[in-house]
């Protein structure tokens, strides 16, 4: 893992500044390549081939092509054999990308299996390619001013270019206030965009185009029995974990109390024996419920004992919550409403003291049907089979049933994902209120057309949007803030393809979630673990907001004079009343954390009003 930086003209001082601001991603070395039409920068976190032969930017055999690469290519050894008698200079996967491109051109990109974002410069054609992995694990941002292109692994490096404005993107703000993250290709910065997963951006002669290289054909649903599919899923998970353990530096595991990271642990234990595991819990006052706030933390401890791991635990408390939150927002580059960024940053720094790489269980819920919302959507689909007149009668008798009487598509997606308008409307100024833009965005990108069964489309939308732009972005940015590489074996491409062949009824039903994954590891994981309810990675952000020191900080942040850029966007008196109501015992944490995240971001990045 590393950081990549660059732009389409030569400026040695400027590329050094971009490298400097992203040095946390690559503490093991820095390098640059500068000529008249390009400046490429790189910060190295050495994982494969620790020698100087792996230094970047790296030139190809005849020095025509130069690459700055962030990530890991898990099938690089297989590609190396396929490429044949190449006079290799290193043992790095970076050199294999160069050789593959020299041999196969852009068709090489679809053959890469891993997590990656890289820039490839053709010195002869004066052409730049930016490439991002199909699963969207590694971030890549860019800005185009009409003739010149700037790019980086992190937005803060792009902002080293002082001609780039620091303004809020209006559509991104609308989306953030509804879904609590910024979906690609947007960012909260006007004029800065994310390269979509599986895309290649081609720049030449002052213009650029974007195309998809990862066009993976959907496979038909498997007709195999449940037992056959379970056995195949277990084997493929073992294979994925095995190849993602490749490293010349120590590897550990983020262990929660969930089945996903526990399945990865079972696979790691088969390959590497003694495993180092890391978990984070919360400091609690006397009388506060351990089983409520530290349920997963305690369950992870028991799972670690079951597998005999070398288990490491760290606690985070309210005294450090706001400091960690503000530091996390800086590393994320964009606002966040998710209080889990606090323990995630603490855990990454803690794990970095022992290992250089961690595996995690990201993606299991989206691939295998782990969220309760999929069950509720199934129930909604079933309810809507009844005649409209009967549903209308039932809705009148039992008003809660109206939530089930929701059409598939954006209406149902919004029911589960969007912050409700009646919560937002009293807080947003009239000139900043646009109620339909978020609906329009998701219709255009994900729900045209609406397919049946809708739950399959629901899972796919979560995997391509929420997972990439909220969950994976958190994992990458907050691990790399500590110079720690995070890998996601459940999102290995062969495993993603296989998950697509599993019928929906083997993923989620009205009574069960993640059916096939649990079946795959039944007997290998404790039954008590398989019976646990879905909790997600929990953080007591709502409770912390009621602690005096956190509440005082929130009052300061949620004031009209905190940031000039947001002063006229909200009714800050109404926001203050909402905060006091929460402190007094009502629940308003979701919108409050969203606004705190926005305010901290706007101030930290010196966002301007115009």
Strand content: 15-25%
Count up the domains: 3
Which fold name is given in CATH as the topology of the largest domain?
Answer: Rossmann fold
Question: What is the overall number of helices?
Answer: 25
* Helix coverage percent: 40-55%
How many distinct beta strands? 17
Write a structural description:
With 610 residues, the chain is of the alpha+beta class. It has three domains: 2-212, 4-Layer Sandwich (Glutamine Phosphoribosylpyrophosphate, subunit 1, domain 1), CATH 3.60.20; 226-368 and 460-541, HUPs (Rossmann fold, 3-Layer(aba) Sandwich); 373-454, no CATH class. The chain contains 25 helices and 17 strands. It has a six-stranded antiparallel sheet with strand order 2-3-1-9-8-10. A six-stranded antiparallel sheet has the order 4-5-6-7-11-12, with helices on one face.
In short:
Helices cover 41% and strands 15% of the residues. With 610 residues, it is an alpha+beta fold.
What features would you highlight for this structure?
6-stranded antiparallel sheet; Glutamine Phosphoribosylpyrophosphate, subunit 1, domain 1; Rossmann fold; 610 residues
